[in-house]
Amino acid sequence: MKVMVGMSVSKSVRRSIVINHATVRDRADMPTFVRLCAERGIETVSIWGDEIERVGEATALAALRTHGIAVSGYNRIGPFTDEGLARAPFELERAARFGADHVFLFTGGLAETEHDLGAARKRAEDRIAQLLEMARPVGIKLAIEPLHPMLVGDRTVIASLSHANNLCEALGSGIGVVVDVYHVWWDERLEAEILRAGQAGRLLGFHVNDWLVPTRHLLTDRGMMGDGIIDLASIDRMMRRAGFEGPVEVELFSTDWWARDPAEVLDIALSRCQRIFRSN
User: Fold this and answer.
1) Residue ranges of domains in the chain, CATH in brackets
2) From CA 72, how far away is CA 27, in angstroms rounded?
3) Contact 226/219 with Cβ under 8 angstroms?
């Protein structure tokens, strides 16, 4: 049943939610996505560079301005190949033109035939340090989002909040972490590391979804909030205790949800967020 958002979801709740375009990108281009969010009272979104390129920068900017929608996260810089890094200045400048708060870093996994994870991590850390020097003059924060350890081989070499916090401490200002429940819910150090990041003022975002059992695909089978096994309300409390006052950001990579009407997906996501978050 379609949720009547305007009637059932309070204005204050809608203002405390960000929608990531990835949640509905298969059936809603960027202008459509922005319009659907605006119709539901959503005031902030996270965007993707490849989706901007699909419609053109002028069209994408016009959609945001027409509906008065702000940008939280910009996806992304990376993977850290020669080609990906060569695009970094352009991605940073475009993120600034769109008024993004932070830009996500996507390191990529091990290089072809590589086995030395330590060397791959050191290489990524050095490249992040270089990117930070580029980002500071632009005024855009860099965001490290640790991914699930099972993605280390092909998508990231930063797979824990501990590693991300250590790196941020070493690099100083202008960089922080995004906590995505899908990737970190399992970590026995989760509460301590969230608090550590919060005390340092490094919590840039809080992404929500759910872990399904069984999970059919590590990348494209995330669950809608409340459909899986993650204790979402508990992690929300950890974030608030750590001083995070920002919104929850709905980010679903799911072939099942991508196949559904994007308006319905947004309505269900808003209803679930109202039920689960900030009321505990």
Assistant:
1) 5-276 (3.20.20.150)
2) 22
3) no
